[in-house]
Amino acid sequence: MDVSFDLTVLGAAASDGEFGVALRASNTTSSLGAAALTLYFSASAPYANGTRMVHVRTSQLPLPSVPAAPLPPLAVLKGERLTIRALIDRPYIE
After folding, report:
1. Is residue 25 included in any domain, yes or no?
2. d(C-alpha 65, C-alpha 17), whole Å
3. Does 93 fall in a domain?
4. pLDDT for 29-83, tens place per residue?
5. Which of 76, 71, 36, 43 is nearest to 57 (CA)?
6. 3-state secondary structure 21-83
7. Strands 35-43 and 19-24, sheet pairing
């Protein structure tokens, strides 16, 4: 799965809250709470050179209350998009 976010729509502002991607455990679930893996992003306002820092947070089933290892912030350079690729070769939850 590939998803790309255009951060230029934020203009000179930071993201107003989080945005992200939810990967579902099965196609029979319909709520965000049933997502097997959720990636949350929040973007800073651009620095003078146009670079934004994007902070990443995750949650996953079956233990969404257990925090995942912290992820380092990502630098998204001026003119670049935040692109996420998730490779899934089998059911996430067995």
Report:
1. yes
2. 20
3. no
4. 455 555 577 888 999 999 999 999 999 988 766 565 666 667 899 999 999 999 9
5. 71
6. EEEECCCCCCCHHHEEEEEEEEECCCCCCCCEEEEEEEEECCCCCCCCCCCCCEEECCCCCEE
7. antiparallel
List of residues 6+ apart from 62 with CB closer than 8 A: 93
Looking at the domain assignment, is residue 92 inside a domain? Answer: no
Q: Dihedrals φ, ψ of 14, to 5°?
A: -85, 165
If DSSP codes are grouped into helix, strand and coil, which group holds residue 85? Answer: strand
- C-alpha 49 chain-centroid distance: 23
How many structural domains comprise the chain?
Answer: 1
pTM of the entire predicted model:
0.73
